[in-house]
Amino acid sequence: MRAARPQSKLEIVGVEVSESAGQIATQVLDRLVVGNAEQVELEYENYFDCVIFADVLEHLIDPWRMLRRARRFLRGDGTIVASIPNVQHWSVLAGLIGGRYLGRWAKKNWSGEVDEILLIELLRAGSLPKARIRGIVAGLGEVMRIPESCRTLSIAMRPRGP
Fold first, then answer.
1. Domain final position from 54, 83, 112
2. Distance between the two ends of the chain, CA-based, in angstroms?
């Protein structure tokens, strides 16, 4: 958002559950609140013009409650924008099947507990691998118990050169 309007006085506030992902986000945020968006107390009554949920709602325990809560952060004419992935898209389903297989293999061959998931993304590859990765994590979660405290760290790799 800031890159699109570099001269604006746009204030960007973010909420991130992962401290490590939050550190990356601070490069573009004016303020970062680290914590679970459903639990953290935010002092922004009637403050924002826009609240954006970018692929967030599908991860929440009660997304409807979060949307109702977000309304109080908006000014009178404010807007909520939400993007929700199409989990029926073939690219996500391919990842989902792979994640289920990975989960079954891990349950059979590994006795540990998942406490962190590392996603490595090659930006040049575009959105298709990202959709598959989301599917893999979802499929893994269907087969294995992934505790709420599990951190997901996403690393975006930018290729060198043209």
1. 83
2. 24
